[in-house]
Amino acid sequence: MPEFSKMRRNIGIAFIVILSFLFGIYVGLRNYPEIGKVTGLLNKENEVATKADFSPFWRAWNTIDEKYPKAGKITNQDRVYGAISGLVDSLNDPYSVFFTPEEAKSFEDEIAGNFSGVGMEVGIKDKVLTVIAPLKNTPAYRANIKPGDKILKIDEVVTSGLGIEEAIKLMRGEKDTTVVLVIAREGNKEPIEIKIVRAIIEIPTLDTEFRKDGIFVIRLYSFSANSANLFRDAIKSFVESGTDKLLLDLRGNPGGYLEAAVDITSWFLPGGKVVVTEDYGSDKNPEIFRSRGYDVFNDKLKFVVLIDGGSASASEIVAGALQDHKRAKLVGEKSFGKGSVQEAIKITPDTLLKITVAKWLTPNGNLIEQKGLTPDYLVEFTKKDLESKKDPQLEKAVELLLK
């Protein structure tokens, strides 16, 4: 990815992509002299900050001026950006990050879809850089990257201690260049090395299938800007098919726009029903997002949703709402657990702070972050299934729909 909100985009993500993949206190130091000791704080906008002891900061600043041999080649503004990055790092939140002008431009290019990379979303799980999901028909997908893969090295860089955005920056690159990932995969005794040739990433959205057994399948790969309209067309095709059996496949879907998640859920819930709640803790009242009440289906609809460890963010919002309101059964494996909300804030005209502002709760008040969703029918997808080209999760969904 990721996703965020306010932009309300959960970019869940950090599309690499790369994906992934959807921004403080600004201490104005640009008026400091290039030479001479500095001991004060200019442009003080935060009374709390003035009560903090900044003397260690200035002592370090001045020591750099006096001792570091290349200090003159680093501008004061670069040091300010570094200080802000350190401030954000102190939150110990992998999804909060400060972007310098160059990084901000790259991030905005990713949101607009103008980037090259390998095509997957990553997150931090159990303090390890982890693949949330590769995007369909991207270099990562074709290289057989799997949800849940642990990325140990990117080229020669060990990932322990790397932030998500740092990892994304290493994996992105010019089209037709190669990046080497060292992966730890469940079921493999030894790490595996995978070479991936970067390409221009086109984020897939949705496709449909009307099976011979009367089951209509909607496979949703991401919650992009146009996914709500595409889903509307898919629902129209489903209704025109004349069947009452619907399968929504959200496996490997790393998320995207919150608005799209609410809109898609609204096809199955009466107006006013809670889809998701943004919990801001004690800082402000929660914000509740409710169904828009398209709700065109009666109780005779047979509905199953497939999820797995690559289902994250907006996928978890949709699946969680449908499960809590008993509108659909969930089949598959536990979802990723990406349930935090990021807001993008301009710190200066050319820098951004992406900062976590809230956590997502399902309609029943269950926390998504780190916990994920537990399916009603837990069905594992084993290495043996993969080798034999079996899909036991799909088979279980079909069984339930044909009962």
UniProtKB/TrEMBL annotation:
SUPFAM superfamilies: ClpP/crotonase, PDZ domain-like. Residues 104-186 form the PDZ domain. Keywords: Hydrolase, Membrane, Protease, Serine protease, Transmembrane, Transmembrane helix. SMART domains: PDZ, TSPc. GO terms for cellular component: outer membrane-bounded periplasmic space. Pfam families: CtpB_N-like (PF22694), PDZ_6 (PF17820), Peptidase_S41 (PF03572). One of its GO terms (molecular function) is serine-type peptidase activity. The chain crosses the membrane at residues 12-29. One of its GO terms (biological process) is proteolysis. The keyword Transport does not apply. It comes from the Bacteria. NCBIfam families: prc. Belongs to the peptidase S41A family. This is PDZ domain-containing protein.
